[in-house]
What does this fold into?
Amino acid sequence: DFLLNRMTDEDLGDFKGGTSGGKMTDDQRLTRAEGKVYADETGLYLPPWTVKKLFLNGAFEGKLKLSKKPLHRIIAAMVFVQGPGRFINDRGKPVIERDYIHQITGRTPPRRGAMTIVRRPAMKTGWRVQAQVAVLDDTLPPQALRDSITNAGLYVGVGSWRPEFGRFVLREWDVQKDVEAKGKAKKGLRDW
It folds into this structure.
């Protein structure tokens, strides 16, 4: 399963004001949990930075290297995510809403705070994300990027409460060379 945890404007206001929302009703808490989903008019998505962090964290945690250089540094300089990673269903259509609300007890703040019920929107096992990245240098082999995203799925995961939740397996990998994207030539546009 995959737990979503977007920082909302209400959360940011609470952090700045030093409040924790302790006087909310259960319905207000569920409404706030629904706001933790990254969604737009097309459907659910992962922000581009989150997708890039998957590549970076997978290369770092897997201690991957390219010509004796840490691969995560090369990825940071040469790989750029082209728009958000889109959640898609088995038919390739965009996912419009989350599957369920995951609820568990916890402490707010962690370790020292009061017991509370933590609620996060979640996707059931079997979720899929499609993303495209542009690679600016042909010397970065596609297999190195594939290894980094595979490691991210095994060791890091994505979303809240990882790596317990949010682990994934790379199912598809398509490498396209010299693809036109938004009017500019892009090298190595990849879907995963």
Remarks:
- Residues 182-192 have pLDDT under 50 and may be disordered.
- Residues 79 and 135 are 5 Å apart (CA to CA).
- The chain has five helices and 14 strands.
